[in-house]
Design a protein that fits this description.
single chain, alpha+beta, 5-stranded antiparallel sheet, extended
Length: about 150
């Protein structure tokens, strides 16, 4: 669809369609019956994301936090400073933390679903406190959720 709302058609010999596997059957009618059966066994890895609301900024060591922060030799993907577009280096902020669960997807999902907020929160803080020893005094709220496709 064009920016003015009119539709148009393209013809191509080959197309790469990059969408989640479970959506393919719903997009193109000729594929509904021809989707390879091995795709039925494909599974997405679950992951957890958490927003740490901080009352004020963490101590820095000569420079402000980067937007995307990866912890050396840690289990997580690290975190992003979710308020980076505000262009403020002081005051409250939110860190969005990401943790993949790379073991067998079904058991990882079950483990995450059974996980208690306090245990998940403790794991998050334990990971982050290695880089930010003063983290506890800054946290005003910690909210987590589970992601990943079925």
């Amino acid at each position: 669809m064009r920016s003015n709302g009119t539709q148009y058609q393209l013809r191509a010999r080959h197309v790469i369609l990059a969408v989640p596997r479970f959506i393919v059957r719903h997009l193109l009618e000729p594929w509904r019956e021809r989707v390879p059966r091995w795709l039925d066994d494909f599974s997405y890895a679950p992951w957890m994301a958490a927003n740490l609301h901080l009352k004020d900024r963490l101590a820095n060591h000569g420079f402000a936090l980067a937007w995307d922060n990866v912890l050396y030799d840690g289990p997580s993907l690290g975190y992003v400073v979710a308020t980076h577009q505000a262009l403020l280096d002081d005051g409250p902020t939110i860190l969005t933390y990401y943790m993949p669960f790379t073991d067998e997807p079904k058991s990882a999902r079950e483990r995450l679903a059974a996980g208690e907020h306090s245990a998940l929160s403790d794991a998050i803080v334990s990971d982050l406190i290695r880089a930010h020893p003063d983290l506890h005094q800054h946290i005003s709220a910690l909210m987590s959720g589970v992601g990943g496709m079925p």
